[in-house]
User: Fold this.
Amino acid sequence: MSHRLSSMLFLAVILGVMWQGEVRAADAESDSSLVRHLPGGAVATAEISGLASIIERIETSEALKGYLNSPLYQEAIKTDPARKALAGKAILEAQLGMNLWSIAKTYLGDRLVMGVYPPVGIHQPDGILVIRVKNAADLSKLLEKLTPLAAFAGDAVSISDHAGGGKAFKSKDGNQVVVTDRWIVASKSSELLSQTLTNLTTSHDSGLGSEASWKLMAQQLGTQHAIQLCVNLTKVSQLLGKRVVPEKLDNPVVSLLYGGLLEYAAKSPYLGMTVDIGESGYSIQSAVAGKVSDLDDAHRALVLDPAQPLLPMTLDVSERLGVFSFSRNFLKWYKAREQLLEGKLLPEFDKFETGLATFLPGKDFAEDVLPLLTGRVAIVSAPQDYSYLDGKPGVQLPAFGLVIELAKPSEGADILNLVAQTILTISNLEAAKQKRQLWVQSSESYHNVQINFARYLQRPKGDQLATAYNFQPASTLIGNRFVLSSSLGLCRELIDAQQNKRLAETATASPNGIPNVVQELSPVVAAQLLEANAAVIHAKSIQNGKTAEQSGRELEAVCTLLRRMTAIHFDTVQYADHMRLELSGGWK
Amino acid sequence: MPNFEPPAGLLAPFDFTIDRAWTAREATHLLGRSQFGYTPAELELATQRGPAETIERLLNAQPEPVEFQQAELALRKTALATGEITDLKIWWLYRMWASANPLAEKMSLLWHNHFATSFDKVRSVIQMLNQNELIREHALGHFQQLLHGMSRDTAMLVWLDGNANRKRHPNENFAREIMELFALGVGNYTEKDIQEAARAFSGWHVREGAFWFNQSQHDETEKTVFGKVGNFDGAAIVDLCLAQPACPKFLAMKLLKTFVCSEPKQELIEAVATRIRLHDFVMLPVLRELFSSQVFYDGANCRSLIKSPLDLVVGSLRALAAAVKWPSIAKLLASLGQDVFEPPSVKGWEGGRLWINSSSILVRTNFATELASTEQLASLRISVTEGAGETSDSVVARLERLLMGGSFEGELHASLIALNQLAEGNSLQKLRATIQLILSLPEYQLY
Amino acid sequence: MLSSTRREFLQLLGSAGLISLSTMPPRFLATAAETAGIAARDKRVLVLIQLAGGNDGLNTLIPHGDPAYEKARPGIGIPKAQVLRLNDQVGLHPNLTGLRELYDEGKLAVVQGVGYPNPDRSHFRSMDIWQSAQPLNENPRDGWLGRALEWQFDRQPALAEALSLGSDKLPLAFVSTRVNVPSLHRLEDFQLVDGQGPSANRDRIRMTIKQLVANPASGELDFVRRATTTALTSAERLTSLSATYRTTVNYPSTGLASRLKLVAQMLTADLPARMFVVSLDGFDTHSQQQPGHAALMAELSGAIRAFEQDLAEHKLSDRVVLATYSEFGRRVAENGSLGTDHGAASMLFALTPTGKAGLHGTYPSLTDLTDGDLKFNIDFRSVYAAILDKWLEIPSAEVIKEVFRPTAFI
Assistant:
């Protein structure tokens, strides 16, 4: 556990450092991607550029020093794998005569590209790795150091002069590394190796750069990124002999939220991913190509109509932990379920409808209930205020509010209130069984909006109250938006937001993009919640064999980290000819 | 009080200068029975200091170290916070493992089994905790106070339908169990006694999570119990039960079955019952006499009981573990059949041979494997560094002393040495394999 | 020297099967005894299927010949034409095709009109009554099979083994204040784990234990050694069997079928357990009963049919009695939401290898009712008496604490 946490923190330190300054664009000459020099036919490629400046910043950062001095690091290096790694590092440093940081900056700092090739005939799948080093002198130094080393290896490694210039190191199991004046190229396949070397030295654009998948990706995502990955989905699908995503999904929630994106992926020639790290933040984007107009009718329920997009709501509540917002044509999706979902799920829908019939006699879910909704749904989460308790629950959960926009507000609110009342009644039966305080239905008028909420029969008292006391269910209708919340406070905040015009109509779209699913998480609020639950978290660590002190240090480290981060966004965005999953965030 | 001198040869103090010397083996017997196993340090201390000092250490409250206090408090608070019984189970298991007063925990388990109450019906962590604290408070103290406390304990009242006991509809559940299971035992009361006693307990209810005497539901009419007539209330019935001659015998039987032998003879039961009466139902002096007695150290009674899952598991952890993953241990104990706070019925765990069946043997064997060869349950404290260049002979001797108090006889000892010699891997892996074998042995299932 | 000779002598006696002191013979002795035809009846097995929620007996065994049926069930009655007729009066639900085949093959008994006096319509209470077989005890501490196991334990502990499959909580039927019945979810629960040490060490440890526990001892040590031998041998058999267990029978992919398949696997591996309880939930059909109940009927029938075929394939049919039970039947008249409410007397199925298949008892009248419910004419404890006295050979009077005449299906 603590080992995993330690490596997680280390990773976080690295990311943190990278955010502290813009990655300098690579110099003009090295500007263009190396992928075009790789031989055609790759299933996937990855390229990393400008690592040196990132490495440099990590090396000199305060955060790293802090980490290296922390007890967590001291514990981590006592483990077996860590000891072995440190020994290996010492040998390497001694041999090359420089420390690991310099080695990394010198040899990995410029550009690095990898390609994976599919098996052809009897050939195993192959890969190729190309590294461009900034300074030719560094490479000749490396050669000097490595050549005598190879002699020790006896016949395990053979050295020869490579036809295209430079030296070739060949191991017994077929791995080859060729080092020339500027390049390190490694592969198991001599064909790939020599073809790549020729391309590099003659600056020849071979097949890969002109392949449709790669071109489309380059066009839709650009090529100026710190890290860029491209998977040729057409090839993958050929290799698999079937679609990369099944025709019908076996999870209704995934279908509803991501069914559109997955259908794009099934038809897209590529899957691309880029990572960018800037002065104050980072952005990771994945993309698949496609157009709404290419989708069949059933799948159109899962994307927004580009002509008249019903954009997701924004819920601008202060102090929020997170927001999840989207819009769908629920009715269309529900009716198309036989085309979108696996057959084995369908009986569950029948059971649901049967159950609903006893609850809402004479109503049909598709015909009578779904048309009451506009299609916009959002969930907002925020810390619970415990004003209804004399004390606090032992485990503090965040409050949730489900916001449903209604096409027919009064009729829809009646049905949803019925649902809320039923939940309340069932909860009360359960509470009685558990000997907890029961809820009494109450209501209040808040800024002229009526809120129905559940009040505890008696105010619960104590500082270790049961988890169930995290909930004070409340519902309200704000304009045409029905709110069902686990917190009266959150309901009031939503009303405030509406009245201060902070419940903006819709999410703001990124340039040319239509947000399909919008998600946001606040690490700072998450840290607050973790700290509010520190006692329980410590106890859980003790239950797993840690001391109170160890667990305290770990929690503090995680919270410090979270507090340095700004809101994390994770959105699905439709563009004219592709769709992206965009993850972004920043650092304070 | 010469009249109450214990009969010769049974409860008379065992003389370690004549019959048998005090060695690590005797120490493991005393510690194994009176605690949930022992730590290496406890074993060495007890071996060095001898029986008298060890028994006094067991009986008299020892200060708890700060780390224990912190962890215990955190675990208790969390159990209340989450309302999860698993968290409360872990709290108690941790106490059994780490408390400086293990006899109090062992006696608490005895009373938990005696007044077996299950969360399955009570459904309240705080009530289960309160009952447990009540038990611990009186674990070595007055049984009268414990019995009176139990008759008003909210978990017990919920468990045995106190609120259903109403003037016009007496519920006999508690009255029956106090006679059959808590104080007297079958054959020492009549059905009529139960019916009458039930009326005395009518109106003993729970309200707002606390004991409440519901006057309006209490039957104020005359009752006849054990031939005595009066307008008894619940407390009077408890006193009547305590005054029955069967009561000390019933308790003597419990103590003997837990600490001495599975089938105590009538004569021995009478002897212990006499001491219980003499000491006015205070457990501490009774236990002192028991742990010092000839019958306790009688060769026939050593290694004659089957370890309960708690004795096996917590005992092994005390001997070997540095850090424990308690959720896995709690699950393991449930699958072995001893799920604290959730006994199978109001009769508790009968124990003895009933702990053993094909399935539980496999779980016990798997426990040995997982504890010795993986980190899934705990990380071991044991190391190979002790005396670098140890031989197989000394490794096996060290483990035999720690886990059994001394060397096995011929074939078994030879098998252990052979295993340690022939096992693959580095010396730590060899050590682990040897531990695994010892923990899997039928001999290790006994104490 | 002397002691070693004595031990060898005892081992010799042991291997010749002459030590009758032991109540739990090691596996190899049991096999020897089996070939001698002694222990075969000790291997009789009971499998109970608990139909939780209250199965609608009226739509399971349908009195199609009675006009009162159609009248009582206008919305959810099974049309006459679809009923799988057993005779002019009664027939099975159309989805019970597998059970119909078993009936035709003379393997299935159908016991009609089973219940108990003063029926209770609470699920919990009635389930307690069925499982404890003590209708008057409001706080039953143990179940009928639990008490049967106790009786067995006091005489032959080796035979007092039982398993509950697939339920989180041990069914009350198995609860005993003395005998501990394990609950298993998967076959792996009954196997030795490998741990992480070198595999050679693991094998060596197992071998050493097996050698050591083969030595007879006395008292508790002997008891634990014998139990260890039995357990390790069972686990080994199960492990080797789960690798080699093959059946040509195609079990349906339902929960009940997979649990019964597990039972079949365990029987094939010759595990010591003699009693199994498996559960099928969902019979509380208050509304829209038809589709749900029909699916449950299909699951029940398909699973039992496959199980019986598997038993036959492994030549185990003669060793197994299987019976279903449910806490109560349902009201004769359907309710307003196309379902049925809690009722009283009902029916049950039993696989019986004793040639006593067919219909037992008489169908209760649909017009002579108590509070709208069927009247029972066979006390369920008579069914238990048959299972205990005639099959498991455990005296029912001691288990049920009352004398009941065994129903004639065994």
Remarks:
- Chain C has twelve helices and twelve strands.
- The interface with chain A takes residues 287-288, 291-292, 337 of chain C (CB under 8 Å).
- The radius of gyration of chain C is 23 Å.
- Residues 166 and 276 of chain C are 11 Å apart (CA to CA).
